[in-house]
Amino acid sequence: MKNLAYISIGVLFGVTMYKSEAASWFRIYEMFNFQAFHMYGIIGVAVVLGVIITQIIKKYNIKTFFGVPIVFDDKEKSFKRYFWGGIIFGLGWALAGACPGPMFTLVGAGFYSLLIVIAFAILGTYVYGVLKDKLPH
Amino acid sequence: MSELILGPWPWYISGFLIALVMFLLLMMGDRFGMSSNLRTLCTICGAGKKTEFFSFDWKSQKWNLMVMIGAVIGGFIGAHFLSNNTGVNISADTIQRLQEIGINSSETSYLPTEIFGMFTVKNILLLAVGGFMVGFGARYAGGCTSGHAISGLSNLQLPSLIAVIGFFVGGLFMIHVLFPFIF
């Protein structure tokens, strides 16, 4: 039952990524060329609503569907890992035109060459795990 | 009416639905973050035996794999039942700039066929390097577009803002500095 709920949320996410065209390489290219408001509008609306949702949950101590309090963890304070990690991610995002959600959505949509992107994204994650202690964080 | 659903969805609807996804995952007691699945997949493949970073009970992340499977199904539904054409509704300026680098498929295909539809050595290399950097960078930064740009910024986290600025520095460098050498 719970699995079905998660799959349904994933379907909502996947359909939204596909139909908003946020899963399209073309839209990422357009965004980094500042030639349309579209992607900025999507992220902007999601973040503004997200801030409101997060504040309301905190203020009114809203609990989960199962009655457990929702706790927000603060991210570890640092600069290097976020900045350099972010840059490497951004380079890949612009090149492959897909981030870790949409790359799966695109396989469902029938673009099987994304399996190459996914395989190497898993490899990249693995290499990070191996090198983790040697990298500045 | 059908055009409203079958055409590209506007940014305000899409942004609202992404916030809804984040809210539903919070209400389930979890967090919106898709790149964690890549780490879980490493663990399932046995990476935890040698590397501590992957040594955790992957079943604790099963919920997120379900979201991932849903995202695959969502792509299938979006492409096969909710779309009446395959092109992407990008701006005329972008179409023109793409033509200058030899990409002409935006009106007929959801992804550039020049990159995703032809298995040349160059294209495979491009997808492999892109995928590798997405996976490596997401874990190094501790999250991707969903974990930092949506969940993190929603919780007013400075680290997430730094990461998102990094995403854009990297993306702009790729498109404006490196693309002329690639295409």
From TrEMBL, chain A:
Pfam families: DUF6691. It comes from the Bacteria. The chain crosses the membrane at residues 38-57, 82-103, 109-131. Keywords: Membrane, Transmembrane, Transmembrane helix. This is Uncharacterized protein.
Automatic annotation (TrEMBL), chain B:
Belongs to the TsuA/YedE (TC 9.B.102) family. It comes from Wenyingzhuangia marina. The keyword Membrane applies. The chain crosses the membrane at residues 12-29, 63-82, 115-138, 158-182. This is Uncharacterized protein. It is found in: Cell inner membrane. It is a multi-pass membrane protein. InterPro entries: Sulf_transp_TsuA/YedE. Keywords: Cell inner membrane, Cell membrane, Membrane, Transmembrane, Transmembrane helix, Transport. GO terms for cellular component: plasma membrane.
